[in-house]
């Protein structure tokens, strides 16, 4: 006959089983990385690289959006700085045809191109001299010049010359800025006649002229705005 288990022995057995269960629960199976060079290892590496590439792509897109937004803000800020307010009573009564805002912006852009290509005459003396020499192009006159007698003879001079169109713009400050000068400018002539290379008096080499690409681009832009200027008849209906 088997001996009956005592309460003391039962307690010991229960304690051993409880310790064994706690030990088994505490031991977690660890993932064994696949051996290097196997298909599983290559799959894991491809997955990791793909996640990295995706994160990098997202980061680049985010930075690009930020840079574009900053660039747009900078352009808007530059446009605001470039604008000058001209009171209506400051506009000369003889300023006709007067370019509207949209056309004025195009004219200023062409003026900048002409300045870069050295195809721009600034001020009354240079403009008069160029027209009398037979240069063709587009004459821009500032409508807020005081007294207007300073440039009042230029429209008539342009009408008498062949191949010269003229148009008025609102601001002498904007015109000077577009012409690349720090001061306001009363008038500029965007010359369609290629500038001749002059040899300096000291015998040094002449300065390099504009490239063929710059001249071609200027010619195209000048023809475009000149056609728009020809369609202007008067300042009636133009709102600023």
Automatic annotation (TrEMBL):
A GO term for molecular function: RNA binding
Pfam families, A to Z: Ribosomal_L7Ae
Domain Ribosomal protein eL8/eL30/eS12/Gadd45: 106-191
Broad class of where this protein is predominantly found: nucleus
Record's subcellular location: Nucleus, Nucleolus
Any one of the GO CC terms: box H/ACA snoRNP complex
Any one Gene Ontology BP term: mRNA splicing, via spliceosome
Biased composition (Basic residues): 55-67
Keyword Ribonucleoprotein tagged: yes
Keywords from the UniProt entry: Nucleus, Ribonucleoprotein, RNA-binding
Compositionally skewed regions (Basic and acidic residues) per UniProt: 1-20
The keyword Ribonucleoprotein is annotated on this UniProt entry: yes
SUPFAM superfamilies per the UniProt record, alphabetical: L30e-like
Region spans: Disordered: 1-80
Functional note: Required for ribosome biogenesis. Part of a complex which catalyzes pseudouridylation of rRNA. This involves the isomerization of uridine such that the ribose is subsequently attached to C5, instead of the normal N1. Pseudouridine ('psi') residues may serve to stabilize the conformation of rRNAs.
Similarity comment: Belongs to the eukaryotic ribosomal protein eL8 family.
Protein name: H/ACA ribonucleoprotein complex subunit 2
Organism: Kwoniella bestiolae CBS 10118
